[in-house]
Design a protein that fits this description.
Layout lengths: L24 E13 L1 H8 L8 H14 L1 H4 L10 E9 L9 E13 L4 H19 L7 E11 L6 E2 L1
């Protein structure tokens, strides 16, 4: 791993990294996020009784859409021709986590064959999926909290495999 910030040039200005000389390789990234909520809110989601509809289906679609739009949101990200975007949303009930929180565990997997990594797309997908759950349930639970948005794994390119 480099000790240099790649998006800062020698003068200290931000820049998009030039990846034109890099070979295309298969790359994958896995990220996660968690949105905690009241048990009653989770029950509404799990039983399909949320007023705005199927919360988890909407969050999955939003996550995929977000992965595809990452370069529109994060200034120095390269636009990528994503070949895979999967968003899983799993209800977590009382007693399933050590910290006792209930909510939705989001796990995203993104893939590309290209010159640069796809970590930002996986992280953006996880973040937006969690935000979508919040949006769809905020009328009944404004105290929801999004935490633990983080990269779990990346593979491909010059640096190869990294796992948390």
């Amino acid at each position: 791993m480099s000790d240099q910030l790649t998006h800062i040039d020698e003068k200290g200005d931000v820049r998009m990294v030039d990846v034109s000389a890099k070979p295309d390789t298969e790359r994958v990234a896995v990220a996660e996020g968690f949105i905690s909520m009241k048990p009653e809110t989770l029950e509404l989601i799990a039983t399909g009784q949320a007023a705005k509809g199927d919360v988890l289906a909407c969050a999955r679609v939003a996550g995929v859409m977000a992965a595809k739009k990452t370069s529109d949101l994060i200034p120095m990200c390269h636009p990528l021709n994503i070949t895979k975007a999967k968003v899983e949303c799993t209800p977590v009930f009382a007693g399933q986590r050590e910290d006792g929180r209930v909510g939705i565990q989001v796990t995203t997997t993104c893939g590309v064959t290209g010159k640069t990594g796809i970590e930002m797309e996986a992280l953006t997908a996880a973040s937006v999926a969690c935000l979508t759950v919040y949006d769809m349930c905020k009328a009944v639970d404004r105290g929801m909290e999004i935490t633990a948005v983080r990269l779990l794994k990346k593979d491909g390119g010059k640096t190869g495999l990294w796992e948390r």
